[in-house]
Amino acid sequence: MPGLRGFADLHAHPVAHRAFGGRVLAGAAFHPDGINAALANCETVGQPHAHFGHEGALLGSVIRMLSERSHGACGAPTFADWPVFDTLYHQQMHVDWIHRAWRHGLRLLCAHMVNNEMLARESGAVRFSDFNMLESQVHELRELVTFANARVAPGDPPWMEIASSPQDARRIVGEGKLAIVIGIEMDTIESLARHVANDEPTEHRPPLAHPSSLPSVPTQSLRERPFLESEIDRVLDVLQHFGVSMMTPVHVADNALGGAAVYNDYFDLLNCWLRGEYFTLDEDRSLGFRLGVDPTRFELIRALILRLPPRTIPPPDDPAAGHANTRGLTAVGRAFLQRAMRRGFIIDVDHMSSAATDDALSLSTSARYPFISSHSSFRALGLMPRDTTDNSCLCHEGMKTPEQVDAILAQGGLVAPITNQHILKKFGNVPNDATGTSKTYAQAFLYAADRVAQKGGGVALGTDFNGLAGQPGPRYGFLAPKPVGNAADALHYDDLARLSYFLQQPLTRVQLPGRQAGPFDYNVDGLAHFGLLPDFLEDLRTVGVPDSAMDALYDSAEAFVQMWERCQVRSAELRAAPP
Question: pLDDT (tens digit, 9 = 90+) per residue, 17-26?
């Protein structure tokens, strides 16, 4: 029987406008009054960013100012300011754009329910616990599917469906529809076991009051009463109740299960806000990134907004070493993964510390149970201090080592290079001469495809849309990394000699009525929204990614379903095995 055909995105957040208490991401994935209502000006009354600089929203405002190139408020109707490729806080996954990606070959989408209690709380949210954000986002996702299917033309079948099992996914994709797999990516997944009737603190925080506002009641309880092995099944029960099939056990802060990868100073603050302690650091000569290199922003947030204890970061004894988290998986973390495997969950090792990743992959190997990396970057391609003076671009422990990549693939798992790869060393045949574009992504993608060709497993996309990650920029126009005088390798729209690789249909420019700049053109707009994924893939071919590698990508829906089927088989065998 021929395999499924189509590409998979293993990591995106289509309903993240309901995450973070609804106070961080502007714009909705759908609205009954149309796209202009869904993507309205983000600073009008009632919109998420209307509270900029107001009481209880200082951290959200400061982080946006420090991390986004610019913040224009204009979405609909002119779309003068967003969506753009490097936005972090505006909707990029409107249902119309998901539909366009589906029409051009997207067949499986992992939709992750996400949260960060500190960012939510400090952006003025009043309902923000991980449990409540999981509930809100799953409800919104189901509403999105209903809305999308209700808008099809008379006589046309539905085009989107949630898959709760590998059998569902195989059937849905086999029918030509888009299979949605529900995932979770939250900092304190264990807090789901402590859900109470009112998860949020009730204290009022007046303007500029200190100490900072508190985490949710369940998260606070984890400081007072450590998470126990006897509570694991409660967490897994909650996840299954909400239809979650895929999990990221550790996110951007340490939790009861294990240590988080060190690659951002803000996450060090989050760790202290959630747990009362900063990351515990070690030295690693394979890494370049260090905490504390630029303390100004860190101190601004730590001292003036969060009022957290002072942080002293001694430089590594070895001047050539970077920072790594000392924490691996905890004993309860190991038990958690073992029970998750027995229930057939898809387990994602991204965001774990290097030690925790090694611990998790050891469990995967022993159990012969596939794990995945849903939005990967690779240490073999990372830069060291001799390559750049920009600490934020240096190799960090969130990047998978060659040994970790091979361990994932050896059990039939998948790696999915994140689309925004920033800056990398060269790998493969594509020139590495346009930083932060499809050419940069091509280096990571070709590395992953090469490992898959040697070790098995699969390679997919991991876009992280709406995940505060940014996307690849254009290779032409004023936002390009450098002037390009020859458009020979541009993406040529409506050129019948350059057919879309998957469906053999020419791409046309994305229209957005009222947009001042006219139709989206990937050449000058980059990956500004999810609907431009087909253009991004065509651009990969344009810059020289060979068809053999593209074939692997367009087989990724099949590779994912096979991996999920393997999880199901092994979970049954693990349950049947003697204790």
Answer: 999 999 889 8
Helix (H) or strand (E) holding 98: helix 95-103
Quickly count: other Cβ atoms within 10 Å of residue 202's Cβ. Answer: 7
**Nearest-angstrom CA–CA distance, 240 and 238:** 5
CB atoms inside a 10 Å sphere around CB 79? 21
Rg (CA), the chain: 22
Question: What are the E-state strand segments in 231-372?
Answer: 246-247, 281-284, 322-325, 346-347
How many CB atoms are located within 10 Å of the residue 331 CB? 9
Q: Are 5 and 554 in contact (CB under 8 A)?
A: yes
Query: Which residues, 6+ apart, have CB-to-CB distance to 498 below 8 Å?
Result: 492, 506, 538, 542
Q: Based on the number of CB atoms within 10 Å of its own CB, is 286 exposed (0-12), middle (13-18) or buried (19 or more)?
A: middle
- Reading the block at residue 388, the tokens are 């750049």
* CATH number for region 7-194+231-476+551-573: 3.20.20.140
State the SS3 of 414-475: EEEEECCCCCCCCCCCCCCCCCCCHHHHHHHHHHHHHHHHHHCCEECEECCCCCCCCCCCCC
Q: How many CB atoms lie within 10 A of CB 139?
A: 13
Alpha carbon dihedral 466, 471, 474, 477, in 10-degree steps, equals: 60
Confidence (pLDDT) at 374: 98
Cβ proximity of 262 and 291 under 8 Å: yes
Contact 64, 159 (CB under 8 A): no
DSSP-H helix ranges across 328-394: 331-342, 354-367
pLDDT tens-digit series, residues 465-485: 999 999 999 999 888 887 665
For 252, the token pair is 């951007």
Residue 188 has pLDDT above 50, yes or no: yes
